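Reopening this one. Same input as before:
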Amino acid sequence: MLGSWSVLAADSPGAHLLYTQASLAAVFPAWDPLNNAILIDPPSTEVATAAAAELDRIYANAGVSSWALWVPSRRRDLDEPDTVAVVHGMTRDTTTLVMTLELSDGMPAHPGVVATTVAVANDAGDVPIARDALPEPDPRSAVNGWALVENGTAVAGAWTYRAGRDVGVYAVGTAPRWRQRGLARMLMQHVLADAYHQGARTASLQSTRMGEPLYRSLGFQPAGRYEEWVPAQNKQAEPVECRGRDAA
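Same output, byte for byte:
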């Protein structure tokens, strides 16, 4: 995940990754969903609150008002109690489950899945896009965008980043009218098959509650979770990130 943020920062105006004493922050002034900071120190109310205050200044100085603090946890169930009960100045938002899979040959590829840019793949998970409007992927980029095309329209999207023998899968989503048709499964099967043939042997992702049944059915198992907090004055109606997707 950190590797993908670093690659994406190179092409996003003003974006950068920044280590603080207790966290690592991804600062993306031009791309709100990627404004996330991961707590590095062992989580506690005191550590998380101090980190949040420092991060609030960092994001404000970059002109960013919408961001999230991720508190890592070893807990593997979305319904277990929070690791940190209170982060002063922050409001509890969503929880994402970190899930991993050992890849093997034989995952089916699907001819309807095409490579494109990350930005367009991200959009296709929310709004259908005409196939003819899909740009070609940047062959220099280490981050790959994917869109699933049905009847001439891209209606689902995701992006991936391979670091060594692991592929990270991000922002899996299906446009609302096309959900509950198994399209997210087809998309996932294709990107995992491609990753295996490119040399990946494990896959990792973050799942919302909506996406968990799909990922478990593909063989993913929970390895931990992130408990996400947002500034109290900027509480979102829905989570921001490549978080809040997983609409199958």
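So the earlier flakiness isn't reproducible anymore. For the record, The chain is about 20% helix and 35% strand.
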